[in-house]
Amino acid sequence: MPKFELSLISPLLNASGTLGFFPDPRGPLDLSLLGAFITNPISLRPRAPASPPNYQPYPGGFLLHTGYPNPGFRAAIKRYASRWAQSTLPILVHLLVSGSDQASLDELTYMIQRLEGRPGIMGIEIGLPPNADAQTACAIAQAALGELPLILRLPLENALLLSRALSQDGLGDTLSAVSLAPPRGAMRVPEGLATGRLYGPALFPLSLATVLAIRETGLTVFAAGGVYHQEQFQAMLSAGATAVQLDAVLWRGGWQSP
Amino acid sequence: MPKVTGRVAAIKVDRDGSRLAEIACPPEAIPGAGQYVLAWAPADRDSPLATTVFSARRKQNSFLAAPQLPASWAPGTQLEMRGPLGHGFSPPANCRRVALAAFDRGLQRLLPLIFQAISNQADVTVFSDTALPGIPAAVEVFPLGDLPTVLTWADYLALDLPRRAIPHLRERLGLAPGVALACPTQALVFTAMPCGGAAECGACALPSRRSWKLACKEGPVFDLNDLEW
User: Fold this and answer.
1) Which pTM value belongs to this model?
2) Whether A253 contacts chain B with CB within 8 A
3) Which of B46, B80, B193, B228 would you mutate first to test chain A, the one with the most A CBs within 10 A?
4) C-beta contacts of B170-178 below 8 A and 24+ residues apart
5) Any chain A CB within 8 A of the CB of B189?
6) pLDDT averaged over consecutive 10-residue blocks of chain A (258 residues)?
């Protein structure tokens, strides 16, 4: 069990990758609406943007491939730790796991241990490597357990399968929550095939159904995916989500509070 | 970044059929040459993202928005706007021979520079292969293929080019490898900027001399020498 509990002052959160590495009051959202701030994904080593990145709109949403560029864990701590400490919002640091091998798990443990005790940090959210299976998800959850509350971000398309495995492995009590990562998709473009994460309002019915199903496993869920309106936010809470993460709606024009 | 409210005051159709919108808004929200705003019509409830809007012509309390614009925008459409965002063009104050080149359908985005240069009594030459918007008669116009001939004449060069044109730029400028440009050159790199700088998401990352640059925050207008091309 983590030493500290996750306590949100509001069930509204930003999804990782939507508002940068630290809460910026000049951004598109009134930060006082949020219960916590989730950072962009941070990996142990620096990651360059995808070359080239890809943005492909389609009816109801868009596909995005960016490579999750970030300066790497050590540089991120140097650049942002003081901003996290000064933040009026609790910070959830999103960490990327590079793989499922022991070296990757050791990297994860290393990063988490260096975040423990830092001011302003309320917890950790972990992004799974692409195509992570149930065994990998459980191994990562075990490796990440420490003092800080832990949220495991599961790809929407596999979230139910992985949630069942986590629950059966007895990790339901040790994980503070699972959250939902954008599903991956593919589109035919003139240069060939574009793959990437999917965003947009068209995802909402799938996200809502996934939240309902995950709740059956007994895990705590932070919903995400296609939430653009207040009634969708409320629907997610009614379905049993403890919190709701907003993604591309924040880039469109912010969030309309009721 | 404060949000402001705007309104589509009129829709104009250009000679090539592209639509421009006159957007009424507070003067402080009007983007400068090469800057942009993100605009979204709340009536379009399920639009996934805002539209990136560049100015083609500034007026006192409105501006003419360059294509491409959503088909759903009509006179009277209310808009929520964030901006101006990004870095725009900054031609040297004393330039007298200004060359502008649009590699795609981006000439409208260069129009504010044309009017600015003319008001500064500079000679202006435009290179484009697309239909011309209403530009002053004093502007000389040439096909894009003639661009290399002007490089020794101009004392400032402004480009509007899509990201995919960057690898071929040296060839289009007629420059041999390693040969530098003779005059200050800025380029508006037209690429998707879905987060508008809110997330540093990386969708608009461009290779630069040192590492990469984000068009949404560090551009979309760059000194060409800062980019890898």
Assistant:
1) 0.93
2) yes
3) B46
4) B170/B229, B172/B103, B172/B144, B172/B147, B173/B147, B173/B148, B174/B147, B174/B148, B175/B148, B175/B151
5) no
6) 76 96 86 95 96 92 96 97 95 93 94 95 93 92 92 96 94 92 94 94 98 96 97 97 96 79
CB A2 within 8 A of CB A121: no
Token code pair at residue A48: 């360059």
Cβ neighbours for B118, distance < 8 A, ≥ 6 positions apart: B124, B136, B138, B139
Q: Could you read off the pLDDT of B93-146 as tens digits, one per residue?
A: 889 999 999 988 778 899 999 999 998 889 999 998 886 767 888 888 889 888
CA A108, A111, A113, A116 dihedral sign is negative
Q: Shortest CB distance from A64 goes to which of B38, B46, B203?
A: B203
pLDDT band at residue B1 under the 50/70/90 scheme: low
Query: Could you read off the pLDDT of A189-248 as tens digits, one per residue?
Result: 988 999 999 999 999 999 999 999 999 999 999 999 999 999 999 999 999 999 999 999
CB of A77 closer than 8 Å to CB of A23: no
Looking at CA atoms only, how far is residue B96 from chain A in angstroms? 37
Interchain proximity A66–B163, CB inside 8 Å: no
